[in-house]
Automatic annotation (TrEMBL):
Residues 194-214 are annotated as: Disordered. It comes from the Bacteria. This is Nitroreductase domain-containing protein. It comes from Microbispora maris. InterPro entries: Nitroreductase-like, Nitroreductase/BluB.
């Protein structure tokens, strides 16, 4: 390996880690850290950023890290390198989720470049959509994107099933809003206007007064908690529910969770490339009884990992990310 090649690999590894920081995460907790040494990148979960009340098993933390892992992979591919990934390489180090070696690769194809271009553009949406439906052909493409990563994206085409998911989301939201520990945990990740923090959900990331969606209303997290925070609702948006979908996996272990995050991010980047935004609703999946109900009655026995809505918006919300110096060793 000559010096020029070593330098190129080091630069690619740094670019891949910086791209990983743009992955979505529950409440924008960004629960990851990275180590870079030569041609190797290590992805670790950050237990200090785990949601101990709503995510005691670390499932959502691991899904978030899986999304970051996919950003590493797609960035290396886009730069002409091959990511050699070992997931959970050391049983004695459970926080070490993946080790990625940067190998010489080939010129990236058009689809890889398409996904990579959306890494910093993609945003999480937190309200209703316009009335414009997501085309069936695009929905099929999103289903195909999730499959190679080990995830099953299931569009909810039944009105009854969509009503059930909306009702379960509302029920979980109501229960959690009465639980002091849930509320305090959520408040930790809610950022007031003018905050200099580079994590959590900023006040401009959700509407001040979310309009009721139709035909099914999905409860939104109450990040403001009685404060007049948020952005003014866009009257140009019809507050449509959009397309409801479930992401599931065949198993429900830590590797399934990590791969669910990779499948999710691959699908999200493809959606973003065609102007489709995605809103997440994890409340019901944070309650074991409701998650089991969804697994049994709506997922054909597979494990539900994410409930989401897809649609088109006019203006996207803001997002914040921590500096690489805070995350990378």
């Amino acid at each position: 390996m000559n010096a020029r090649t070593s330098e190129g690999i080091a630069q690619a590894a740094q670019a891949a880690v910086e791209a990983a920081l743009w992955a979505p995460s529950i409440h924008n907790t960004q629960p990851w850290s990275f180590g870079v040494s030569g041609d190797e990148i290590c992805l670790r979960a950050d237990p200090d950023r785990k949601l101990r009340i709503s995510d005691p098993t670390g499932r959502q933390m691991t899904i978030s890290c899986g999304a970051a892992l996919f950003n590493v992979r797609i960035t290396l591919l886009a730069l002409g390198y091959e990511p050699e990934v070992r997931r959970f390489p050391d049983p004695e180090r459970p926080l070490l989720l993946a080790r990625i070696r940067v190998r010489p690769g080939r010129e990236p194809g058009e689809h890889i470049r398409l996904l990579h271009a959306e890494v910093e553009r993609r945003r999480t949406h937190r309200s209703g959509f316009t009335a414009l439906p997501v085309p069936d052909r695009l929905v099929d493409a999103l289903v195909s994107e999730a499959a190679p990563e080990g995830g099953r994206l299931m569009p909810i085409t039944s009105d009854a099933a969509a009503r059930v998911l909306a009702a379960l989301t509302g029920a979980a939201q109501d229960v959690q809003s009465q639980d002091r520990l849930f509320v305090l945990e959520l408040m930790r990740w809610a950022r007031p206007p003018g905050s200099s923090r580079r994590d959590g959900v900023p006040a401009a990331g959700y509407p001040t007064d979310p309009r009721r969606m139709h035909p099914q209303h999905f409860a939104q997290r109450d990040y403001a908690r009685g404060h007049e925070w948020g952005m003014a609702p866009d009257e140009r948006v019809s507050a449509s529910t959009g397309l409801v979908a479930l992401l599931s996996t065949g198993g429900d272990g830590r590797e399934d969770w990590l791969r669910a995050g990779e499948a999710l991010q691959r699908m999200l980047l493809h959606a973003s490339a065609y102007g489709v935004s995605v809103a997440f609703h994890t409340q019901a999946l944070e309650m074991p009884e409701l998650r089991e109900f969804i697994r049994t009655h709506l997922c054909s026995g597979e494990s539900p990992q994410m409930i989401m809505r897809l649609g088109f918006v006019i203006d996207e919300s803001e997002s914040v990310r921590r500096a690489p110096s805070e995350v990378v060793e």
